Amino acid sequence: MLEIVNITTIEKELAIAWSDGEENYIPFNKLRHACPCANCQGEPDARGRVVKPDVIFGPKSFQLLRYEIVGGYAVKVTWGDGHKTGLFAYDLLRAL
Hints:
By secondary structure, this protein is of the alpha+beta class. The chain contains three helices and six strands, in the order E-E-E-H-H-E-E-E-H. It has helices at about 30-35, 40, 90-95, and strands at about 5-10, 15-20, 25, 65-70, 75-80, 85-90. The strands form two sheets. A three-stranded antiparallel sheet has the order 1-2-3. Strands 4-5-6 form a three-stranded antiparallel sheet. The two termini are about 20 Å apart.
């Protein structure tokens, strides 16, 4: 099972070292644009159509304030503009 061995920020990137020896360096702006929450990506209506909401980013939108590992499967990120509802699953982080 894939686990995070180490996670930290380096300048404007989230750096992750994985248990299989791989490393990811994800720029904050790429991470924020990939936020998987319904507020950022939309959610299906009764007919299954997903309408992506218009997300407006401000000056603090790409300031990563905090991160925490959640349940051994995801990372929760808190941004400078107060946004904190996205849970980034490990497979999503690896893909970024």
